[in-house]
Amino acid sequence: MGINNIFICFIFIFIVSHLFPPSSFAQNSCSISATKNGNWRNKNTWNPNRRPRENDNVCIPNGIQVNYNMVMNNNARINRLNIDGTLRFVPSLTTRLYVHTINVNPSGSLIAEPNANQLAEIFFAEKRQGNNPPSVRMELGLFNHGGTILLNGSSKDRIVTYNNNLNKNTNIIAMNSIPQGWQVGDQILVHATNYKRNTALQNDICVIASFNGNTINCSQNFNHNHKIALAGELHLANLTSNLKLRSFANNVDDRGHIMFMKHGNDCGDITFDNVELYRLGRTRKDIATNNNNTKNMYPIHFHICGMDREYTVSNSIVNDNSGWGFVNHRSFVHFENNVAFNFAGTGFVTEAGNERGSFTNNLAVGGRGANDGTSGVKRYPYRRVYLGNHNGRLRAADLAFHGDGFWISSPFIQFTDNVAAGNHGTAFFWYTIGLDDIHVDAKDSQPSEWYTTSVDPSFLTPAEEAQIGLNSPYRSWIAGPGGFMTNDLPVFYPVERNTAIANFTGLRFRYVRNLNLVALRTFFPVNRPANTQQMNAEIISHMTHNNGASNTAAYTNYFSISDSRLYNNEIGLHSTYSTRIDFDGMTIANNQSYTYNNATQRREQAATGIEMNHNSNTHHRLRNVSISGYPICRRASDGELVSDGDDVEIIDQLDVSYSNCEQNVFSDAQQDLRQYRK
């Protein structure tokens, strides 16, 4: 064969192998394969001529549809299910499948749409060989390699508001009308309305025992009082669906996970609505990630699906999760009307910093958070977020582990009408340096090497480019020629009408549009000028575009956080290393009592309405903001003045009202708290 022919064969093999990647296991690894359309229970559907049985590797070839029509016993658990054709759960029957791993390949389809009076369940069940847990990502769970996923549970009112108190030692919920789809046996989540550090979260579960007209009778009494005095309403969430994907084992190491992966330009055709995900996710966030605790194994994870197709996850539940819940990783995903409950790390996450999509009308409750001194994690590091570098958590981008409701790394996300309540961490946390590309060789506040997620100018739309006040992209310093670092960008889309109730912190911003002069000093070479004015001038010169335009143009506009409602959080709003945020229409209220053992403890831990951490915040606007009921309404570290080197604003001159606080404004310029926050 000539050299040209060899080269042509090589190119052909390369193209075929990349356009049509092999399945997770080869067809000749199948112990049983469907040969014609038919029912799972029918032995004539299969070769060999029998039903699939325990530990089988089952294949459904392209062009063949198998109707799943049985309730499997766990003893019959199959090992792997490789779908190149179609597996369809019969909607008119109650069905149950026990399986280790499902792979849906580019030509494959997994369809489950049970009728309202039926139940469809998929249990991910591990049967170990020896004591080693599964650690690879592509094992034990559901993996879509660009195929079709059509998962539709029956419609149900997932989240409803309730305008009365629910009292401890009672078991009655008196509704104006019974929400659509609620049934006896459903689990109803009632979030906390009070928060106290170092104590159990005050969230309750009502299992519906019966209905009496429009009254719901719970099978047990509430353990806590749920008062609406501040917020005016509770949010009740139904945690039950008739389409369930769950782990058979309680042990975290034996739990399944769901990952959607790119094939070609996108992750395939995915519909995900009214699905209950119970005890899924194998990545733990209560300890550091490592070789035995690898990343990316979450209950529902869009993994680098790209921006060519938009996906929607709606009306679904993640319940009892060891790490993150709903995860958008470099994808374009809309999360609508979903519930995350009882999670160790964070309920909803954008991971890398360059995701698109939205979070709308979601509820996050019961974030536990890590509290493991051996891995450098502190749950209550006074008022600051603690991201200590022990065991390399920062270097490994192993973040969002405090029990936060929402962790937003991307400035390209629309965020409206969400609720986070009863969490040990922050309700809504913007940390837009991203998670993928962090490289830090010190604590988060003192990095000596720091590279953040960056985007190419082509990633920005013309409207987004117009918002940053530039005629052309230019950020060539660190991000690459013409590139932008995500934490140098504003939040482009609305952040409005969000509610935080009974969390450690209500709303937190860190490293959001932070590349102004104060934060830039972090990146400046070690041999810094001793004179601050000289250093500021040199940094501006370092950031100058080739045409001489100053980088300050990027900071002339504000982005708005509007109509935030922050109730009974120990800290209402906390902002550090961020610039030009317009807080417009914000209510920060508290009616809890606090006891401090001594003056030092009060200084370190006093509940506070707003804290702007020393002189790292520049040009924030506080408009139509009311703060009430805190020991300290507003804490201004390092004095009242904040500056970015060009001009100065005094926050007190903005539109803020204080009431019923022991101290309206506390400045620790003379008693610097930074020594307590390391």
Which regions have little confidence, pLDDT < 50, spanning 5+ residues?
1-25, 439-450, 471-481, 515-529, 538-555, 638-650, 669-678
Spatial shape: globular
> What proportion of the residues is helical, as a percent range?
under 10%
| E-strand count | 48
Q: In angstroms, what separates the terminal alpha carbons?
A: 69 Å
Question: What structural category do the secondary elements indicate?
Answer: mainly beta
* Alpha-carbon Rg, integer: 27 Å
Return the average pLDDT rounded to an integer.
81
Most strands sheet: 17 strands, parallel, barrel
Strand content: 35-45%
**Count of helices?**
5
Oligomeric state of the chains present here = single chain
Short description:
The protein is mainly β and 678 residues long. The protein has five helices and 48 strands.
